């Protein structure tokens, strides 16, 4: 009977502890400075500082209708406080907002920011916004849309 009681107590304790979830709130995922990443011959970008690597072939196809258009170029990447990745580059007409998942980045939104293509874009963290600079133009972005500034 003593062994049965011990097993019952262990099962009960396991059930109680597994039901208790630990949640840490107030997490800020944002990077203070954008990453300027070079695109290699295989369409891969790697950010060793943040431990991130991925292919930009699909974004190049979406933006330029050519999956190899970004080879040898640089892309600009910044992570917002909410954990979304904002990606753009010279010549882009859009900023791509990507949501991280298990081994993937999925498109959250495509924000049209230029009708002719960006000349020298830069991304800044300006909570609660991501700021896109291009020449004298300043555009404030959320994960869903442009909230301030005007399309170039």
Query: Biggest β-sheet, characterized?
Result: 5 strands, antiparallel
The helix/strand order is HEEEHEEEEEEEE
Report the uncertain regions: none
Number of separate strands: 11
Please state roughly what percent of the residues sit in beta strands, choosing from under 5%, 5-15%, 15-25%, 25-35%, 35-45% or over 45%: 35-45%
| CA-atom Rg in angstroms | 22 Å
Assembly of the depicted chains: single chain
Number of domains in the coordinates? Answer: 1
Gap between N and C termini: 79 Å
Mean of all residue-level pLDDT scores: 89
Helical element count? 2
| Largest sheet, spatial ordering of strands | 1-4-5-6-7
Output the structural class. alpha+beta
Helical content band: 10-25%
Shape: elongated
Characterization of the model:
With 152 residues, this protein is of the alpha+beta class. Helix content is 17%, strand content 39%. The protein has 2 helices and 11 strands. The chain has helices spanning 2-19, 57-64, and strands at residues 35-38, 44-47, 52-55, 74-79, 85-88, 94-101, 104-112, 121-126, 129-134, 137-141, 146-148. Strands 1-4-5-6-7 form a 5-stranded antiparallel sheet, with no helix packed on it. The protein has a 4-stranded antiparallel sheet with strand order 8-9-10-11, with no helix packed on it. The protein starts with a helix and ends with a strand. The model has no long low-confidence stretch (mean pLDDT 89).
């Amino acid at each position: 009977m003593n062994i049965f009681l011990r097993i019952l107590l262990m099962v009960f304790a396991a059930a109680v502890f597994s039901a208790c979830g630990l949640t840490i709130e107030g997490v800020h995922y944002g990077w203070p400075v954008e990453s300027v990443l070079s695109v290699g011959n295989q369409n891969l970008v790697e950010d060793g500082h943040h431990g991130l690597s991925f292919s930009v072939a699909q974004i190049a196809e979406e933006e330029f209708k050519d999956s190899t258009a970004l080879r040898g170029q640089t892309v600009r990447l910044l992570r917002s406080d909410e954990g979304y990745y904002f990606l753009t580059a010279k010549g882009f007409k859009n900023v791509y907002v990507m949501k991280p998942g298990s081994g993937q980045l999925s498109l959250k939104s495509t924000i049209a920011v230029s009708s002719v293509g960006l000349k020298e874009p830069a991304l800044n963290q300006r909570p609660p916004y991501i700021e896109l600079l291009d020449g004298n133009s300043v555009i404030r972005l959320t994960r869903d849309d442009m909230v301030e500034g005007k399309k170039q």
